[in-house]
Amino acid sequence: MIKRVIRSKVKEVLESLYPEHKDTLFEVEIPKNEAFGDYSTNVALVLKGKVGKQPREIAQSFSEMLSQEENFSKVEVAGPGFINFWIAEDFYRKNLKDLLEKGDDFFKLDLGRGQKVLVEFVSANPTGPLHIGHGRGAAYGDSIARILSQAGFSVVKEYYINDQGTQMHILGKSVYLRARELVGEKIEFPEDGYQGTYIYDIAKLALERYPNLLSLPEDEAIALCRDLAVEVILEDIRMDLEKFRVHFDSWYSERSLFERGVVARVLRLLEEKGLIYEKDSALWFRAKDFGDEKDRVLRKSTGDYTYFASDIAYHYEKFFERGFDLCINLWGADHHGYVPRLKSAMKALGVPEEKLRVILIQMVNLLEGTELKSMSTRRGEFVELKELISEVGTDAVRFIFLSRSSDSPLDFDVELTKKQSQENPVYYVQYAHARICSVFAKAEEKGIKPNFLGANLALLQEKEELKLLKLIDSFDDVLESSALQLAPYKITYYLMDLASAFHDYYTKYRIIQDDTELIQARLALCEGVRRVLRFGLELLGVSAPEKM
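Below the sequence we write its predicted structure tokens.
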């Protein structure tokens, strides 16, 4: 909150002193050294060379005007021309009172102003159960959607079902061959077939549902097996995501793009624009003209369409027919080479580059002791998301998945997430919330009724209390940067800092003691911390237990 106030006040002075440079960009940051204040801005350094004055002279004129602001206890010029701010303690106390008055409305931002955003994530091929890599993408995408909704965007969460193409045929054939094997036939299972026990389970179901399956022409039987496999696997995926607290607004079928003629329509559009050509009996897109390293095939010489063809159609529909202002795709890191390909197609269609954002989700390494587990869907060697949830719980899985940036590989230590200690970050944060709940339970036992709005917050004078007040104030800045950078891990880090500060405070001071006025002030502070912890955890899709 105060960061926004500083930025606003600096901008007012900038417009007053140098109106011709009122749109100059500048930073407001927390200095690494506390001796340089609570916040600092580089506005005078940025103006150097624009206004014909030295930075310190510019900074001094800013400082004189900003010093009149009641929320700043001190404003000083330092170094080559930085302007440092010390914030009046009463600002933080007023901010806490504002939070206690407004409730959850306190956390609302209007960054998005109702812009329509589509977040497409997970979108795992319906060829097998969700593994822990998919789970990380699920946690990340769902949290991004929650954060953007809170920041004023109108968000739709979508799962794109890859139910078309070669892999679907391989899936259907894998089930068909296992069905033949189950009735005693000797078969040769292809190297690229899908293995794993789930294929046998679907094959058994296929034989029950279609008693004449093996007497049908092979192509027809494989198509039935394919459709059944997609149905069964998607239902399994839906159930896993339900347990993981991930709910999609839309399940979008790739096959429907062909059935509704969207692919054909978009290819005609590309042809009219002169962006496709035929070579070697295949149809090519002029991707190189739009930033990709080479041209790309849309239709193979066999007549089969590539994934790229349907992806162009899918994204064309997102922007031009469904009217989204921003589309966010979360893909596995193995798709990194595909990003410039898709962006080249969108550029060709006239979509501004900033309207498509692709987040790559790095892999998860599951640690059990010192052992690493690997994953391969076709060979059936993968750690299923449901297994991990069953072992450590949804809260722990989501929190740990969101504890690092998506572009960093993640080592998930199973044993650590079971510990009830400071080493386990999710336990430590949830325990802070539960601890505060126990404080209020104790107050109730003693007949103390909290009076948040009537509390004398000026009694909050201790260093640890001021630290908590400052952390509460900084939450909306964290929320804003998480929304703009699509970075849920910033909230995770923040919650760990807030929990740590509260545990330190709780250990050092008695909240329920003899001074009734001080009790009310400290209960108000505890309530502020509790609300921020609960709300922050909600944005991560993690529960805030009252007892642990």
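The CA atoms of residues 47 and 208 lie 76 Å apart.
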